[in-house]
């Protein structure tokens, strides 16, 4: 599968972020806990130079808890602060604000030494599309100021959001990078909806998912869908369509809808908590 996708608004967004970075004290880098490696944009990693840096493993409610713990210790061993959350859940907010205070303590002490009192921390919220940047921003501010949605590219421009007297957030559009290092990165990003659904063949992606699931989480597919895990590739979508009773007008099985439903079930967690990547 060959996915190359870098729409114009992303070029503009990264340029804009590079201009605004001068104002920023802290980069909050949002990753999808289920694909913590592929969802790390190397261009965002570069922006963190000289800034406080916090990694959020978001959508942890949908991820494999054991692997999420492995990722947290992986980042901590590299000297990075990382936190796993479901950013829709306001119960997590204190955990996040405490961590923000921890990683910006040095900056605040520096301010004090220079006689600057109570200057708010300015944080850039950055990440790939659809990872939950706006959701986290809204949860932190307690207001629905930023538009959210379960497709990539919902946020089109930057937006400053005031959280409290100590913290201002800059919500930004999701950005990818022009060239993925391997085809698997593109596949994983597409599987979790970071790349628009019209960029790749849904049926092809469904087969990618089938192989990953049967390999990494044997038994999951048969228990959720009641289908065999030893089907030939060519029979998978028919089996799902049959199980879900997805028929076209002429009575044929609707393989395309079966593929779409399979991907939706992955993204929404109906296939259970899972993660596709582990730290090296
Ligand atoms: N289960 C779960 N869903 C989440 C979480 N965070 C965000 N979502 C959902 O993920 C989808 C995308 O969220 P957004 O906040 O719009 O993501 P974004 O990163 O701002 O996306 P763009 O602006 O398109 O780049 C929405 O349907 C959210 O409800 C989370 O921690 N857990
Ligand atoms: Mg957004």
Q: Let me know the CATH homologous superfamily of the largest domain.
A: P-loop containing nucleotide triphosphate hydrolases
What is the CATH architecture term of the largest domain? 3-Layer(aba) Sandwich
If strands are numbered along the chain, what order do they take across the biggest sheet?
Answer: 3-2-1-4-6-5
Q: Given the helix and strand composition, which structural class is it?
A: alpha/beta
How many domain units? Answer: 2
Question: Roughly what is the average pLDDT, rounded to an integer?
Answer: 93
The description of the largest β-sheet is: 6 strands, mixed
Q: What is the helix tally?
A: 11
User: What sequence of helices (H) and strands (E) makes up the elements?
Assistant: HEHEHEHHEHEEHHHHH
CATH class categorisation of the largest domain: Alpha Beta
General form: elongated
Helix content: 40-55%
CATH topology (level 3) name of the largest domain:
Rossmann fold
The residue ranges in which pLDDT falls below 50 over 5 or more consecutive positions are none
- Assembly form of the protein: single chain
Notes on the structure:
The protein has helices at residues 8-20, 42-47, 65-77, 93-103, 105-113, 133-141, 183-191, 202-216, 220-225, 233-243, 255-268, and strands at 26-32, 52-58, 81-84, 121-127, 159-164, 167-171. The radius of gyration is 20 Å and the shape is elongated. α10 (233-243) packs across α11. With 280 residues, the protein is α/β, with parallel strands linked by helices. The protein folds into 2 domains: 8-171, P-loop containing nucleotide triphosphate hydrolases (Rossmann fold, 3-Layer(aba) Sandwich); 201-268, Conserved Hypothetical Protein Ylqf, Chain: A, domain 2. The site of guanosine-5'-triphosphate has 24 residues, from α6.
């Amino acid at each position: 599968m060959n996915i190359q996708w870098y729409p114009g608004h992303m070029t503009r967004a990264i340029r804009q972020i590079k201009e605004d970075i001068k104002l920023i004290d802290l980069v909050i880098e949002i990753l999808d806990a289920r694909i913590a490696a592929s969802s790390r944009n190397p261009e965002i990693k570069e922006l963190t130079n000289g800034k406080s840096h916090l990694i959020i493993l978001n959508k942890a409610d949908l991820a494999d808890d054991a692997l999420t713990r492995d990722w947290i210790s992986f980042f901590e061993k590299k000297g990075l602060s990382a936190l796993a959350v479901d950013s829709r859940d306001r119960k997590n907010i204190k955990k996040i604000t405490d961590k923000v205070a921890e990683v910006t303590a040095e900056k605040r002490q520096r301010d004090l030494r220079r006689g600057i009192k109570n200057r708010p921390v300015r944080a850039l919220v950055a990440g790939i599309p659809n990872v939950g940047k706006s959701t986290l921003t809204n949860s932190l501010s307690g207001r629905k100021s930023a538009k959210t949605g379960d497709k990539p590219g919902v946020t089109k421009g930057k937006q400053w959001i005031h959280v409290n007297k100590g913290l201002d957030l800059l919500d930004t559009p999701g950005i990818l990078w022009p060239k993925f290092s391997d085809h698997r990165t593109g596949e994983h990003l597409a599987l979790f909806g970071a790349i628009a659904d019209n960029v790749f063949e849904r049926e092809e992606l469904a087969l990618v998912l089938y192989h990953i699931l049967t390999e990494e989480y044997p038994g999951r597919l048969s228990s959720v869908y009641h289908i065999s895990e030893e089907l030939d590739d060519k029979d998978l979508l028919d089996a799902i369509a049959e199980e879900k009773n997805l028929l076209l007008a002429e009575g044929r099985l609707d393989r395309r809808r079966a593929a779409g439903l399979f991907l939706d079930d992955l993204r929404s967690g109906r296939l259970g908590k899972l993660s596709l990547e582990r730290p090296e």
